[in-house]
Amino acid sequence: MYNSLLKPLLFQFDPEKVHHFTFKTLRQFHNIPGFNSLFFKKYQVKSEKLETEVFGIKFPNPVGLAAGFDKDAKLYKELSSLGFGFIEIGTVTPKPQDGNPKKRLFRLKEDEAIINRMGFNNEGVEATVRRLKDNKDVIIGGNIGKNKITANEEALNDYAICFQALFDVVDYFVVNVSSPNTPNLRALQDKEPLTKLLLHLQKLNKAKEKQKPILLKIAPDLTDDQLLDIISIVETTKIAGVIATNTTISREGLTSSDKDEMGGLSGKPLTKRSTEVIKFLKENSQTKFPIIGVGGIMTADDAMEKFKAGASLVQLYTGFIYKGPQLIKDINEAVLQQRES
């Protein structure tokens, strides 16, 4: 129904307005008695064989929702009923911010892709914390960043504020220094500032009675030498793992009319590169740290390629928008079939 009816209709309208409309509609539907269980029966794949333990957390299945979709933790309960094994909220910043001027979200239908230059638009970490206090059983990742007005030299404080505020309401953290939509943010991926940032967060983490896994989300545009630096940083700071990858600034091979819009590109054009990054990290790391694979997962086969390359878990964003919740079910069924064989 999604691909034949809903998507053709929704894709006639502005993507950001559709996003907010979808949130509102899904929330209303879930208030209808029995509707939640209907979604559960249609899209959930339940099996102990799907359970996946990574960095000390037992996930009911290995398919999650990537950050950027539910930035402010407004719909994590409803989205989890579509079959996701975990939901990553954010990117969250200490203070609320509007993000970049609109229009800032573009569908590239011919390329099965999206360009966004949202700019960490969110209501601030305290609003997110309030919503997550009601969570009972959804595994939540907290993706954290810095405010646009915060200089890179002061960025460490922004990440620390978000870490401390979210600590009691998320299951793991993701440090986002790889979005192309906040000026100079990617400079924090350089070895010295990134090591300093992660060591500081680990210091805060170790001061807690029980530590939470900290992961690093990286760009797909890093060179092999930069990826080797990432491996070294992970091993030095002893963070829990890496999310590979964020959106790309590359526009190679695109045919859609909006291909030259500024921002980060996600979707099918990223499929190959994100898998290459996962494979490189896995083959060149000594500690074999866990990797969450994200980027261009448009089919179950794409997800299985990520697992084959070395991912322990996968996340969806653009594939979820283009293919709907059936994609979550297809991936989980493919994983289950593999594990049963």
TrEMBL record:
The keyword Oxidoreductase applies. Its main location: membrane. Its cofactor is FMN. Substrate binds at residues 71, 116-120, 176, 181, 246-247. One of its GO terms (cellular component) is cytoplasm. It catalyses: (S)-dihydroorotate + a quinone = orotate + a quinol. One of its GO terms (biological process) is 'de novo' UMP biosynthetic process. Keywords: Cell membrane, Flavoprotein, FMN, Membrane, Oxidoreductase, Pyrimidine biosynthesis. FMN binds at residues 67-71, 91, 143, 176, 217, 245, 267, 296, 317-318. It is found in: Cell membrane; Membrane. Catalyzes the conversion of dihydroorotate to orotate with quinone as electron acceptor. This is Dihydroorotate dehydrogenase (quinone). It comes from Psychroflexus halocasei. The gene is pyrD.
